[in-house]
């Protein structure tokens, strides 16, 4: 077989080396591309994981902050409500205690005023009754004394007036009896003769009559005086 002109017979060894070199370069390139691809994928994966982790951490942090804020707000609201409730209860309790104290003080004051008024009224009534009783006793005593004195004076006067005529008629008889008794030595009968010349029973009846009449007039005067005194007392009050 005739070879073309200018054909150079290839060098087998060189061809093998060249093929080997090309294969190595190709393998190297593929390896580099593969490594690059893997590195990119790895970097991408790591970035995604990092981003995911950061997002999770961020979400977690935000959730924690949100939960913390809500807890604080809730705690603050509960504290405010509790403080408000305690303040209302305290104000209510103080108001009740104040009202109770005022009611007790008012009741005590009213009781004291009532007791004072009752005591004053009782003392006034007792004083009036005492004064009335004393006035009645005094007026009654004065009326009795006056009546008794007037009755005695009136009875004595009437007895004296009635005894004068009888005594004048019996003067001569008394004188004769006295002289006769002296002459007869009967001096002890003189007093008896004088006693017989006075009607003591009549005198006593006259005394009683005058006393009763005077007592009636004195009693009437006493009640008129007492009524006048009570009217004056009521007008002064």
Automatic annotation (TrEMBL):
Transmembrane portions of the chain: none
InterPro entries in alphabetical order: SDr-like
Position of the signal peptide: none
Region (Disordered): 1-180
Biased composition range(s): Polar residues: 164-180
Segments of skewed composition (Basic and acidic residues): 10-161
Database matches in PANTHER family: GLYCINE, ALANINE AND ASPARAGINE-RICH PROTEIN-LIKE, TOL-PAL SYSTEM PROTEIN TOLA
Protein name in UniProt: Cell envelope integrity inner membrane protein TolA
Source organism of this protein record: Candidatus Nitrosocosmicus oleophilus
